[in-house]
Automatic annotation (TrEMBL):
Gene3D superfamilies: 3.40.630.30. It comes from Dyella solisilvae. Residues 7-178 form the N-acetyltransferase domain. This is GNAT family N-acetyltransferase. One of its GO terms (molecular function) is acyltransferase activity, transferring groups other than amino-acyl groups. InterPro entries: Acyl_CoA_acyltransferase, Bact_Acetyltransf, GNAT_dom. Keywords: Acyltransferase, Transferase.
Amino acid sequence: MPIPSLTLTRQAAAADVPAIVALVESAYRGESGLRGWTTETHLLDGQRTDADNVAGLIGRDDSRVLLVEREGDLAACCHIERQGQSGYFGMFAVRPELQMAGLGRGLLAEAERIARDEWQAEAMRMSVIEQRAELIAWYQRRGYRLTGETGEFPYGQPRFGIPRRDDLRFVWMSKPLQEVAA
């Protein structure tokens, strides 16, 4: 199905915080998340993010929250941040009913372009919950590879969600952005 009236990325402002929080929550938690394939409801309860966290990302140096709009409504978002020679990609969400229409691929490509062209980042990095095999496979189809690095899930910190299981952890993925000189 064609997606009309897209504005492919603008940078978020403070006024966008409530809409961003609502979008992220709808894509990852509760019943609305079950309409899309990105839900984490089987792994986590509680919130995915909050207004203070999103506002902090918008206000931080070397950090951008990118938005995709459809007919004036927020359809997708992500957070990118310059971290040394790499970009970091996170808080990626697409409205559940619009998933699998190419919005996510387009937004990821724009995030990579910004990191490569504006920040001269050599790679884009991200962390993904290890148990999200389908999401890891989606990123692998877009050139990301598992690095072998892992990170602990922040148990006991409900601002990241309330785990439904005790074996959650993060895996790190990376994709080179710069051409390697021969």
